[in-house]
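Thread title: Can someone regenerate the structure for this chain?

I was given the following input by a collaborator and told the matching structure tokens would be attached. They weren't. Posting the sequence so someone can regenerate them.
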Amino acid sequence: MPLARRLPAPAAGVDLNFCRNPACAQYGVLPDPFKRPNGSPPAPPGVPRGAVPGGKHREFYKCPACRTTSRVKNNRAVVEEHERLRRLRDVDPCAPACRAADCANQGLPVREHPELYQRFGRTEGGDPRWRCKGCAKTFSSGKAARRHKRSDKNRLVLDMLCNDLSLAKTSKISGLSYRDIYRRIEFYHDQVRSFVARREDFSRIDFAEAGSRFATDSQALTINWPSRKRRFPVVFQHLCTAHARSGFIMEASFQLDPEISPAEAEAQSFAAQEDHISTAFRRHARIWTKSEFDAHLFRLAKAAGLTQVEEYGLPATGSMLRYDVMQFAHAMRLRDHIGQTDAPLIFVMDGDAGLKQSFTTVFQPAVSAGRAHLAIIDFDKAMTNDMRNCVVADGRTDLCASTGLTPNEISLIPSEFFAKILDEEVAVRLVGEPVGEWFQYPFPTKSEPNKRVLLITDHPGLEARDKAKLMRLATLRSVDSYFHRFRSNVRFASRPQISTNGPGRVWGRHHLYDPVVLSKLVEVYRFYHNWMEPGVDGKTPAMRIGLARGRIYERDLL
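Best answer:
Regenerated them for you:
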């Protein structure tokens, strides 16, 4: 009789369930996945056993060596989401291909599969036409905006959407209706996906020269309530990883799958009959269904001792992803981009436990080889500008007292030598500090006052000077700066206001009601930031990282 599993089966060769503590000797070692009742054969020699306690939906693996617990994850759900994110960036939606939904050749490009099509003359405008051999339907290719009646407005609308103009003002200035603007957003999204699929090739980048430090964080984006009967906010997580030196956004994930509707998600869940199975072992565990989401809110209220939890809801279009699944898939996509480099990697994130678990899991080989370091930082975000200046001044006074230099002398030191002075001072203060504990960085910056750093990959063999350098480089400034720009330049992403119609309800005057549109704007602005918007040095992030030699203009995209 086969043994029952206590840990989920691998999916496509991916198994995420093991000890996730980098300081443990069994870090990355796959444990025995089977239940072994009395009378059953023992686990193979050398395979850690551990324990898998916890109730339904809350199972975790407890390492027998370090006693650290790691939440059990659904391998299949993470692999499915990783594949969806891959298709979003790697598949060109504008490539000539059959578009018939019931055809076996749907989406297969002519360039890669010429045997599936035959030339079928040209259109009246002179564009080449093909006929699919599978369904006998024809399609053509040509300029992307060839069917637009007012294509001269495309550049103007793109600039307005990415520079803090509302939908009403965009419509008023451009003379286009709301419906036409929404169609333009779909058009921009397809053009961005096509450009990214052709041009974002990270294998051409030498990260040893361009820099191999990355910052990951998330922000909450809100849409207005989709129904007058239930006025609740719908909140999505926008998860981004930025290349620290260039500011290039390597990966941006939005917590929505627009390809599956809530009704389809409920139907899949009902047909699978998996209510009695834990989420980690289900066939469909990538997205939230309404019944599971409501039950989750009830459990949160019960755990907090509340009679009811603050109302949140699911979107009316598209399906909301489980955030932990998206975090793991996001880390796997980042590994796709930089997995071939031999440069030492530094990953910086905030205190989100899910991010820590996902990065320690996905980058386990690099961490075990000593080629990657992970750092968590924390700082006082609520400080006013004057308070931040005081904290920075105190740190500068401390530095002057330690080095014997005056403030004027310090201000004249070149940045590269100033960094070495900081590392030397911090290295002295790290002597005697416990390994793997939080450290209060003595010389904070204005963007991160009272910064504390936790080096997850810390170990006794790490030199104090190297540790000091890692703590200086541990910053979220690149990704936080992008989030600030996104909220400032995309009016639909502004922070919500408190509604006057009901206590505690949030409502945004310029917020969207359709999350699918917001998900497309997330991709469009990522491209606009990376390829089209130069900084004070006159270069775009794509130019700094080495993907482009010049700025991409609207005419190049459209």
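DSSP finds 18 helices and 14 strands in the chain.
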